[in-house]
Structure formats: structure tokens, C-alpha cells
Amino acid sequence: MMSVLAISGEGGIGPLLHAISGAREVLFWLLLGGFVWVIGDLFQQFAAKYIGISRGIPLSNTNQLWGLLWGVLVFGELRNASSHVLTQVVAGSVVMAVGAAAIALSYAPESEQASWREAAAREVERYDLDPEYVRARMLGETTGASTRRTPLDWALLIGTVAVFVVVGSFARKPEIAVDWTWVTGLGIASLALLAVCGVALWRTTRFS
User: Angle at CA 43, nearest 5°, toward 38 and 46?
Assistant: First the structure.
């Protein structure tokens, strides 16, 4: 769909390729941003699986708060904003943070967990699945079955790395004014949060 929109918006494949060629110096940074986004999507999938969509998706959407911090503190996006705009931004962020805290502190009662088990039982019967496999997957446990990487998996990995290497070879540092103190602080905070959450998720689910 995105390809269709891009081709139609640029007026054809030729103009689209020309536009991409003109932006070749920043393609690496765009791909790098997408790579980081996908990491967040992976965590979102675990959240939707283990705490439900009604909790996992709202919590994952709090990434807007991180975006706000980077935009305001690192890039100074609101340095010339009026007090009215700043009040709206701060108030909206506080409301989102309070809502996220409320969702994070909530838990699924026994009735909801029973509904999950009933839904899983229906799927087991409908698709003739192994009940033990389904139960283990819902709890984040392993079933003893090992998953081996196929040649297609390795081909995709090698191809992806090659794309990053190629576009990185002609990447150019963007001429954007940033506050490197906040870049360092937010970067460390992001990596620390990633490490803590990653370890906790591994201990609970083994990334299953």
C-alpha cells in the first residue's frame, strides 16, 4: 500500500526513484529510525500477547511521550511556542502519563483470565491444536520444541544487513542543531530501559 501511495504521489516509478536518489544521503537515518521502531513493535507484540490488547496497545502508545521529550529537549521544537500551546502539551502529557500508570497498575481478574482460557479452548478445538502447546504459549513457557533458522531466514538477515551497509556508505550527517547533553541523557535512559525490560521479558517468556 505504501508503495502504491508513493508511486501515485510522485507520478510514477521513474519520478519516485529520482526522488529517492535525491534523498540518498538521508536514507540511512530513515532506515535506522524504522529499525528502532520495529524493536518497539516487537515489545508491543509481547504486550498484546501477555497482558491483552486493551492494556498492551495503550501502554505502547506512550512512546509519544518519548517523542515529545526528544522533540522538545533535543531539537528545541517548542522553544518559540506560546504559553497556551505549552500548557496544552504539558496537560496532555500529564493526562497520558496518569492513564498509562493506571493501566500499568491494573491486573486481569479471574473472570477475564477464565475468558482467555475459554477462547483458547475454542481455538484448540477449531484448528485441532495441541492443548499443552497452546497453554504453554499463553503462559510464556517452552514446550521443548526447538525452532531452527531456515535458509530464507538467513537470506533475509544478510540482505537486510547489506542494505544498511550500502545506504550507510553514502550517508551524510544531517545538519540539525541538537542539544547533545539531552541526547546523551535520553539515550542512556532509553538503553537502560531497553535492557531492564528485555531482561525481565526474557526471564518471563524466553522470547517465546
Answer: 130
